[in-house]
Amino acid sequence: MKKNNLKRFLALTSIAFAYGTMYLLPYMKGVWYDQMIAATGFSNEQLGFLVTVYTIVLSITYIPGGWVADLIKPKKILAFSSALNGLLCFVFMMFSRNYAIAMLVWGAAGFTGGFAFWPAMLKGVRLLGTKDEQGRIYGIFEALNGIASLLASMFMVWISTLFVTEIAGFKGALTTMGSIGIIVALAVWFLFDENLTYNEDALSESSKIDLKSFVKTLVMPEVWIVALLMFVGVTIFDLLAYLTPYNTSFIGISAATASFIGTFRQYGCRVGGIGGGFMADKVLKSSALWQIVSMVAFVPLVLVFGLIPEGATVPAVIMGFVLALMAYAQRVTCYSLLTELQIPANVSGTALALVTLIGYSPDFFVHTMWGNWIDQHGNDSYQMIFNYNAVVAVIGILLALISFRMVRKKRQFAIQELSEES
């Protein structure tokens, strides 16, 4: 039994590292912003548009990928996706100054990180835990993939410092990233033993979305409220990537130091998700109420960046970490809000798909828009970006208040029904 538990842990670790390293490439500007600009020669707007290309492909392949994940075992999909993602890193490293190829690479990354990878990853984790262990297995998985992202990114930052120039260091980091992708693919292939199946139901459940359930879910106001709250949270989360060029161009931190700080901000602050869950479940006992608290906190957190003077390194770094912790803490409780709003179980999968699609739609345009602002207005653009996020957070407060009112009405209705029955 202990031997099986070790095998199960190794299998879970391999999947976690596949997930934790899959998105380093498409979102690498959160850590490597200045190095990417120097190495590629792209404008800030072009850099932002790469994320738009990535998001478009990711969204288009999401639904057919679920169907494919039902037909092919998770191990093959995860290993293939990780290997292909690693190869894309090498392609981008060799043709880093060719924008057309960069767009192809980011589009292909949308395929490897979306399509069948996402549902296969979820199914692989579920297979490794019994019905009674699902919460525990996902908790361990979340911790492991956070460790994977942090370790891989830190190792890449260290590798980049071994080179004389920023450009050479960036290419060294890309080579490392590609090598990690190949190693992870091999780890999944050899460590994920599909005979260790603890949850047979995961093999039979379909992730396909039928038209009837989609239409039914589309008109639910509760789903739209959650999706729009996710939209607000993702917008503010996207701001984190722009704190890296803000730290270098406005605050005056070196590119290497900014990358190191960005690594901890982007990946180390995932522990904020644990704090958010604790606040929602144990302290406030309501995800809707926690959404109000977090949205109210976002407004001053974002606006305070506009008050930080040039060269004030410590306040800028500390506030960046605080904002990242809150961003993770808010986003993780959006999904639990679906349960609190009593979304029917038979459409919960469709609701999650819709919330994900709408919630992550800021990636379609904000990176390109903010990149354009930086190209046009230089350091003045950061105040514009902070103001934009403050306005979005104010809208988030209104949405959170509506969600809390919905939850309270549903609870009152449930109590009334119980009293009438008794």
Please explain how this structure is put together.
With 422 residues, the protein is mainly alpha-helical. The protein has two domains: 201 residues, MFS general substrate transporter like domains (Growth Hormone, Chain: A), CATH 1.20.1250; 214 residues, Growth Hormone, Chain: A (Up-down Bundle), CATH 1.20.1250. Helix 4 packs antiparallel against helix 8, helix 11 runs parallel beside helix 17 and helix 11 packs antiparallel against helix 19. The longest helix is centred in the last third of the chain and has 42 residues. The radius of gyration is 22 Å and the shape is globular. 49% of the residues are buried. About 1% of the residues have low confidence.
Short description:
The protein contains 19 helices and no strands.
List keywords for this structure.
2 domains, Growth Hormone, Chain: A, about 80% helix, about 0% strand, about 425 residues, mainly alpha, single chain
- What are the segments in which pLDDT stays under 50 over at least 5 consecutive residues? 202-207
Helix content: over 70%
> Counting H and I runs of at least 4 residues, what is the number of helices?
19
- The coarse overall form would be globular
Which architecture of the largest domain does the CATH hierarchy give at level 2? Up-down Bundle
Radius of gyration: 22 Å
Tell me how many strands there are.
0
Q: Give the distance, in angstroms, between the N- and C-terminal Cα atoms.
A: 48 Å
Instruction: List the domain count as a whole number.
Output: 2
CATH class of the largest domain: Mainly Alpha
Summing up helix and strand content along with how strands pair, one would put the structural category as mainly alpha
